[in-house]
């Protein structure tokens, strides 16, 4: 009899992350990650992302060039 969870047949999407954390600036994240065994970090990060507030309004984006030109035109009028 097979042990463990049955293999999923759902499609997957892979996202490889590489973080460079700075001692003194990211100590909370370093402490969080060092307490978790390497084989459980992906699960812990997914859980942290799900419980945090990840609203799209918080993501810093650069304005589109057309929007900048339009704003400049409106300013100069």
Question: Element order, helices and strands?
Answer: HHH
Task: Compute the number of helices.
Answer: 3
Number of strands: 0
The radius of gyration over CA amounts to 21 Å
> What's the pLDDT, averaged over the residues?
81
Name the structural class: mainly alpha
Report how far the terminal alpha carbons are from each other: 76 Å
- Helix % is 40-55%
Strand residues, percent: under 5%
Unreliable runs, pLDDT <50, ≥5 residues?
Answer: none
What overall form do the CA principal axes indicate? elongated
Largest sheet: none
How would you describe what is shown here?
The protein has 77 residues and is mostly helical. It has a domain at 19-52. Helix content is 40%, strand content 0%. The protein has 3 helices and no strands. The longest helix has 12 residues, at 65-76. It is elongated.
Provide a concise account of the structure shown.
With 77 residues, this protein is mostly helical. Helices cover 40% and strands 0% of the residues.
Mind sketching the topology for me?
Elements: H1 27-34, H2 41-51, H3 65-76
For this entry, give a set of tags:
mainly alpha, single chain, 77 residues
């Amino acid at each position: 009899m097979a042990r463990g969870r049955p293999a999923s047949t759902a499609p997957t999407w892979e996202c490889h992350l590489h973080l460079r954390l700075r001692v003194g600036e990211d100590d909370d994240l370093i402490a969080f990650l060092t307490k978790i065994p390497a084989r459980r970090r992906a699960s812990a990060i997914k859980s942290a992302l799900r419980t945090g507030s990840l609203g799209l309004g918080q993501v810093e984006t650069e304005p589109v060039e057309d929007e900048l030109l339009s704003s400049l035109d409106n300013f100069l009028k």
